[in-house]
Amino acid sequence: MRLILRTLGTWLLSIAVILAVIDGTKSLAANTLVMTPLGDLWQSLNAGSLEWVEAFLETRFFGPALTPMLTSLLTVPSFVVVGVPAIVLAFLGRSRYARQYVRTDEI
Fold first, then answer.
1. What is the pTM for the complete model shown?
2. Engineered SS bond to 74: which of 30, 39, 48, 61, CB 3.0-4.6 Å?
């Protein structure tokens, strides 16, 4: 289980770094700070699925509560949305015991 958590955390963290580098490149080109929101990224990757998720949440019982949460999540920078779960998963998959290092003259 720890291996799966660490692997998934590492993959998500690498995606978050790639997204941060893309935003950094856009910032250098525009000579101002550019952070791509998750909504813009999702819209550019697959607009149909974003519309489907919004329509799906509106038809649910908790739709009035979930729609504002989705709207606020879509305004957060994409590297943050991917990076925070990556760090949490990597932390959950860490080794539970503290490593003790021994000097060679103590052996």
1. 0.80
2. 39
